[in-house]
Amino acid sequence: MRKCALMLLSSITLAGTGTIALPAAAQTSNQQVDPDKKAAQVVAEMTQDERYALLHSIMPIAFGPEPLPKDVQGQPAMAGYVPPISRLGIPAITQTDASLGVTNPFQARKGDVATALPSGLALASSFNPELAYASGKMVGNEARAKGFNVLLGGGMNLARDPRNGRNFEYLGEDPLLAGTLGGNAVRGTQSEGVVSTVKHFAINDQETGRNTLNSVIDEASLRMSDLLAFEIGIEIGQPGSVMCAYNRVNGPWACGSDMLLNQVLKKDWGYKGWVMSDWGAVHDVDYAAKGLDQQAGAQLDKEIWFDGPLKAKVAKGEISQDRISDMSQRILRSLYAVGADRPLAKAEIDYDAHGKVALKGAEEGIVLLKNNGILPLAASTKNILVVGGHADIGVLSGGGSSQVTPVGGPAAILPIGGEGFLAAFGKALIVPSSPLAALKEQLPEANIQFDSGYFPNATAQAAKHADMVIVFATQWQIEALDAGSMALPQGQDDLIAAVAAANPNSVVVLETGNPVHMPWAKDVGAIMEAWYPGQRGGEAIANVLTGKVNPSGRLPISFPVDESQLPRPEIPGLGGPADAQFDVDYNIEGADVGYRWYAREGIKPAYPFGHGLSYTSFAHDNFKVTPKGDGLSASFTVRNTGKTAGADVPQVYLADAAGKSMRRLAGFDRVELAPGEARTVTVPLEWRVIADWATDGWEVAPGTYRFILATDALTDGVSASVKLKARHIKK
Ligand code: BGC
Question: Which parts of the chain have pLDDT scores under 50?
Answer without folding.
Answer: 1-30
